[in-house]
């Protein structure tokens, strides 16, 4: 009996999202006690919308981090992609093609990051720091620092990206859920997903059985970038305009979400569901603190604490589960 | 490898000089280029201007040099500047200030706010260091956490508002002495001197290199790794506090959102100066040159009349190119 | 036809690395359904040879005929395709993933929609695991397995590739007796299925227990292949060692003083138990034993790198507490570690910093600044004293040869003015000339009255240098003997394999 219980506990601990999930539950519990408005549908919808944009980026970042690299340029891509789209749309090109073009630019940036990384063997921190500055600068130069609004009449496409759909829920929430399911599926159900884990977990072992490590990394950089671009488009859909400074420092928040969700900085471990929970946790913290009457700044300080504590806990849990 | 003649030795020396001072040549080329396009660049006032501009992120880059040589990273220095800065400003407001943070407090001697800023910086850094040393979480995470915590504390402390109207003795720190030498530059140079001595001439400095070079071997050789890690991050935080003093002096007020993203500029300066993220390699001199490269570029492009945004673009490219050159040089040696 | 009879024929294999000729034209012939041992001292070339076979390296020249066909250069993935699997000594699985994904990595079974068929993968894994009698849930994460189990999974992987030739590089070095028995059972089962196994081991008793043939190498050369059952132990050892020891290293007797260091009942949670020994002033205590016998671990524990569960350490009769390397250094101990790259040198730092790192405190002035001039002079002195060949003190240590790197490390520890020196494989991977110089330094130190504990896998070295020899086997001391004229390598081997009559 005792042994069975122990086995059950170990089994529970092995779920890579267990840390973030319990953290989420505790935080939800605390805030529902602190504020009666917390556990309401409107609040939930509000949180979910706020979470979605960060969450969509966090999915891509997680996917990339599992393969052992990371990307600081997602905040810039978050603005570059919809900016490209907005400029094209305003010049009369159909919103759908503008959207695709925006995502294509995002993919190019991701590919460039991956290519430079593979060719020069510079750490991803430096490569993507460089491209983050480069593309943010390009963005500001092209836009002249002013925000660009969509001037056309064809709003339906923007609605699909980030408009309200039902019960106050926004489309971005749907994209968030679709992204989570899609990338979870890739990671857990496809051959490619296995290779992503192998490349991040043990690059040499992956090479030894003939996996093309460079290819996997470049593909993941592209995927990460495209998700950041998609997230940017949902924000464009929400405001009908895009600011060249949008997404500043979002890269760090996305990495925080991924890490709170259990991803290892060294790669080879983590889950998309974890990133989902991590992003959600950040969103809840933000709105919960406001509802609980704390000045909005408290949220910043809390995020840092949650991040550090969660990494320490995740490490301990992983050790306990694996002996 | 055996040297067969003096010509071989000369060749090696030449190569070493090129490797060691490659980025200096880049800097000189930039200066020459900009001066041709805009002779005003080389005026005395503009040179001091460039140095002043480089001083704030330059001071941070000095601390990051220690951190990066030890194979770590510190993302929190920008936020620490803001936190140290708002506390400094609150303690250093002039009696004439319209909205006083401590309404009933008179003007304090100037060393109190300065000391407060330095101690808060060192404390924040020390906490990051202790987290890294004791819990073994990656430096990236610990300092990312400290980055948001310190920023949050700065916002909470100041209630999101800038704190302004500082006593003249503080704003003097942003001014000039003898009518032409900017005080920030003097502070920057003193910080460079102290950091150089610490890194090159003390046991602490040697330990920093050893920890970054091979942490296991350092432990076996009797280096107190955890103590040194705490000191490294505390020093980085201390310099962020010092940068806050300069910042407050120059701007005359401190906003809790100040210095957002400065950590990346400082990391860029350190990296451009040849400090390797693989650990064990780097110099204070390099950080200074790296900071100058960025400052010269910003100033020069502005003088020539290039859009401010293009500066960021160039910065991004320079970082990558500098690191590529650096990696080449290390790879060639194998 | 003889070609029909072999699954593998390697002949005239030469492999050179920059500056080293690791294989000088060796051969290896393996028949189907045969367990074939490769034996030889460290540096004999066994590992290089199997690395060539597994596609990790390509031979510089030579011929490989596998399964009746001559094969050219190939990589590890192609080797697997051909049916050659290797189980490495240092296992490196994808730790945080389940067993089944590790087995089928790169060959994941797909369903008709192109997704990974986990159910099928699970079933296939079950089958493979059953084939090697391993009762483990394929969904278990690799990281939670013992080393022995991970090894079994590697074997299961080899089976799943339908490998005809499985290379095992010292598979038993981290296993318990019981686990070794299980491994042997599986090896025999694979043999009965007609698979061939190349088995590298230092453990003589195991070689006799499980192998059919044994091929012996020495200094990158082929010495001979024999049927294991026809080969007496003494001849095997002779073929491995092959030279007369006493001529190479004439032992210089130094005056021996009182007991300096005493270890009493040192016990680790699982690596070693009840280790007791003493070292006197001016004495060289050699420690012999097979790789994995716990030699290094004992020394690392005394030096404070690992922690013990019980036991006492006395210096000059006084009990001391050592929890960190810096405690040991404070007690005037020094440790030259086994793995120079891992825990010895700071590769990209200067020779000078590498030398002084353990001893900087001695060179500080009142302000806490390093007295550079004094430090430089001292370094120069040591460079001369132990003849380090370096273009200068500011040279990066990684650019020196292995032997000179080792000399710098010796200098590092001599500068701390130690009374007790632990030397773990002080001459591993070092050319003969430098080796002799290091031996001279060690002897000289003993002459100065220092106490020296030297671990070595090379019996000639232990026997040539030591006053007394301590032999370990599986975490226990099996003997401490005086190094007299009549002591033979066979005697030591008997202690090391715990087969003393």
> At the first level of CATH, what is the class of chain B?
Mainly Alpha
Q: Tell me how many strands of chain B there are.
A: 4
Principal-axes shape call of chain B: globular
* Main β-sheet, spatial strand arrangement of chain B: 1-4
> Helical region count of chain B?
13
Subunit organisation of the chains: heterotrimer
Unreliable spans of chain B: 1-10
Which class of secondary structure composition applies to the elements of chain B? Answer: mainly alpha
Unreliable segments of 5+ consecutive residues of chain C: none
Principal-axis shape of chain C equals globular
Radius of gyration of CA atoms of chain B, rounded to a whole number: 21 Å
The largest beta-sheet of chain C arranges its strands as 6-7-8-3-9-10
SS content category of chain C? alpha/beta
Write the H/E string of chain B, N to C. HHHHHEHEEHHHHEHHH
**Whole-number radius of gyration of chain C?**
25 Å
Number of domains of chain B: 1
Distance between the termini of chain C: 45 Å
Helical amount of chain B = over 70%
How does CATH name the architecture of the largest domain in chain C? Answer: 3-Layer(aba) Sandwich
Strand-residue proportion of chain C: 15-25%
- Tally of structural domains of chain C: 3
């Amino acid at each position: 009996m005792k042994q069975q219980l122990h086995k059950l506990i170990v089994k529970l601990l092995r779920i890579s999202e267990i840390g973030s999930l319990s953290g989420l539950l505790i935080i939800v519990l605390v805030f529902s006690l602190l504020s009666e408005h917390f556990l309401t549908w409107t609040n939930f919808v509000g949180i979910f919308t706020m979470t979605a944009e960060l969450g969509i980026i966090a999915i891509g970042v997680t996917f990339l981090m599992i393969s052992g690299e990371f990307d600081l340029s997602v905040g810039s891509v978050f603005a570059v992609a919809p900016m490209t789209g907005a400029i094209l749309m305003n010049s009369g090109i159909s919103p759908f093609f503008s959207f695709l073009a925006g995502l294509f630019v995002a993919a190019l940036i991701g590919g460039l990051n991956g290519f430079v990384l593979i060719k020069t063997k510079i750490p991803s921190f430096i490569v993507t720091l460089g491209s983050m500055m480069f593309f943010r600068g390009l963005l500001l130069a092209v836009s002249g620092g002013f925000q660009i609004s969509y001037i056309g009449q064809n709003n339906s496409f923007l609605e699909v990206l980030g408009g309200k759909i039902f019960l106050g829920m926004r489309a971005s929430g749907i994209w968030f859920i679709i992204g989570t399911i899609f990338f979870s599926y890739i990671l857990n159900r496809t051959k490619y997903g296995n290779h992503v884990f192998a490349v991040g977990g043990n690059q040499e072992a992956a090479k030894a059985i003939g996996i093309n490590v460079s290819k996997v990394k470049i593909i993941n950089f592209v995927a990460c970038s495209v998700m950041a671009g998609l997230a940017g488009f949902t924000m464009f859909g929400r405001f009908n305009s895009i600011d060249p400074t949008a997404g500043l420092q979002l890269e760090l928040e996305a990495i925080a979400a991924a890490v709170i969700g259990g991803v290892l900085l060294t790669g080879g471990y983590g889950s998309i569901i974890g990133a989902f929970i991590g992003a959600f946790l950040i969103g809840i913290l933000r709105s919960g603190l406001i509802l609980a009457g704390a000045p909005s700044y408290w949220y910043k300080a809390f995020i840092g604490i949650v991040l550090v504590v969660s990494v320490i806990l995740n490490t301990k849990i992983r050790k306990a589960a694996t002996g | 490898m055996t040297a067969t003649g003096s010509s071989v030795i000369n060749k090696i020396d030449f190569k070493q000089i090129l490797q060691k001072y490659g980025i200096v040549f880049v800097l000189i080329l930039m200066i020459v280029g900009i001066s041709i396009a805009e002779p005003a660049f080389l005026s005395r006032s503009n040179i001091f201007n460039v140095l002043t501009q480089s001083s704030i992120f330059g001071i941070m880059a000095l601390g990051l040099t220690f951190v990066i040589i030890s194979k770590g990273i510190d993302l929190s220095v920008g936020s620490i500047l803001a936190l140290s800065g708002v506390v400094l400003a609150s303690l250093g407001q002039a009696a004439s200030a319209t909205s006083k943070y401590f309404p009933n407090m008179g003007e304090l001697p100037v060393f109190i706010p300065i000391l407060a800023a330095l101690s808060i910086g060192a404390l924040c850094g020390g906490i990051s260091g202790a987290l890294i040393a004791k819990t073994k979480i990656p430096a990236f995470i610990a300092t990312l956490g400290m980055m948001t915590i310190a920023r949050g504390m700065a916002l909470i402390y100041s209630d999101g508002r800038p704190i302004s109207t500082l006593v003249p003795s503080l704003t003097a720190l942003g001014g000039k002495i003898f009518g032409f030498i900017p005080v920030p530059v003097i502070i920057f140079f003193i910080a460079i001197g102290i950091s150089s001595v610490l890194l090159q001439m003390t046991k602490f400095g040697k330990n920093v290199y050893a920890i970054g070079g091979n942490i296991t071997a350092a432990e076996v050789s009797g280096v107190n790794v955890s103590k040194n890690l705490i000191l490294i991050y505390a020093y980085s935080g201390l310099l962020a506090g010092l940068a806050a003093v300069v910042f407050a002096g120059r701007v005359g007020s401190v906003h809790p959102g100040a210095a957002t993203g400065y950590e990346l500029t400082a990391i860029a300066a350190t990296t451009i100066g040849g400090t390797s993220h693989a650990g064990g390699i780097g110099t204070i001199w390099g950080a200074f040159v790296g900071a100058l490269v960025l400052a010269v570029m910003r100033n020069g492009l502005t003088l020539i009349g290039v859009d401010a945004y293009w500066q960021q673009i160039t910065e991004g490219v320079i970082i990558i190119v500098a690191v590529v050159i650096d990696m080449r040089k290390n790879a060639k040696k194998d | 036809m003889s070609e029909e009879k072999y699954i593998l024929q390697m002949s005239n294999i030469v492999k050179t690395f920059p500056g080293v000729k690791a294989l000088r034209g060796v051969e290896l012939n393996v028949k189907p359904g045969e367990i074939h041992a490769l034996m030889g001292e460290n540096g004999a070339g066994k590992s290089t040879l199997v690395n060539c076979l597994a596609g990790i390296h390509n031979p510089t020249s030579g011929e490989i005929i596998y399964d009746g066909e001559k094969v050219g250069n190939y990589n590890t993935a192609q080797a697997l395709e051909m049916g050659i699997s290797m189980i490495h000594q240092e296992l490196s699985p994808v730790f945080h993933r389940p067993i089944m994904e590790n087995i089928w990595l790169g060959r994941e079974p797909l369903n008709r929609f192109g997704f990974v068929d986990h159910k099928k993968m699970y079933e296939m894994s079950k089958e493979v695991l059953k084939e090697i009698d391993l009762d483990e849930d394929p969904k278990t994460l690799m990281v939670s397995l013992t080393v022995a189990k991970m090894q079994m999974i590697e074997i299961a992987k080899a089976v799943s590739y339908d490998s005809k030739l499985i290379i095992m590089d010292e598979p038993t070095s981290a296993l318990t007796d019981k686990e070794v028995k299980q491994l042997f059972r599986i090896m025999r089962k694979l043999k009965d299925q007609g698979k061939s196994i190349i088995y590298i081991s230092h453990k003589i008793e195991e070689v006799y227990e499980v192998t059919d043939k044994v091929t012996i190498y020495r200094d990158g050369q082929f010495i001979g292949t024999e049927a294991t059952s026809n080969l007496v132990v003494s001849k095997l050892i002779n073929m491995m060692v092959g030279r007369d020891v006493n001529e190479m290293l004439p032992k210089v007797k130094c005056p021996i003083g009182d007991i300096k260091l005493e270890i009493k009942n040192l016990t680790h949670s699982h690596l070693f138990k009840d280790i007791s020994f003493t070292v006197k002033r001016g004495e060289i205590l050699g420690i012999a034993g097979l790789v994995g016998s716990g030699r290094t671990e004992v020394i690392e524990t005394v030096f404070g790198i690992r922690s013990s569960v019980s036991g006492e350490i006395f210096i000059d009769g006084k009990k001391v507490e050592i929890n960190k390397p810096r405690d040991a250094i404070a007690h005037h101990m020094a440790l030259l570690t086994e793995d120079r790259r891992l825990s010895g040198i700071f590769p990209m730092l200067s020779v000078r910093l590498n030398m002084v790192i353990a001893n900087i405190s001695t060179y500080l002035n009142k302000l806490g600044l390093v007295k550079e001039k004094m430090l430089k002079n001292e370094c120069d002195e040591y460079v001369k004293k132990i003849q380090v060949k370096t273009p200068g003190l500011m040279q990066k240590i990684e650019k020196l040869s292995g032997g000179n790197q080792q000399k710098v490390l010796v200098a590092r520890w001599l500068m701390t003015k130690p009374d007790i020196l632990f030397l773990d494989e002080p001459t591993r991977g070092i050319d003969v000339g430098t080796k002799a110089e290091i031996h001279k330094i060690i002897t000289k130190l003993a002459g100065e009255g220092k106490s020296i504990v030297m671990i070595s896998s090379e019996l000639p070295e232990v026997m040539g240098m030591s006053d007394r020899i301590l032999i370990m086997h599986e975490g226990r001391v099996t003997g401490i003997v005086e190094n007299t004229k009549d002591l033979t390598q066979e005697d030591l081997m008997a202690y090391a394999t715990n087969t003393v009559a």
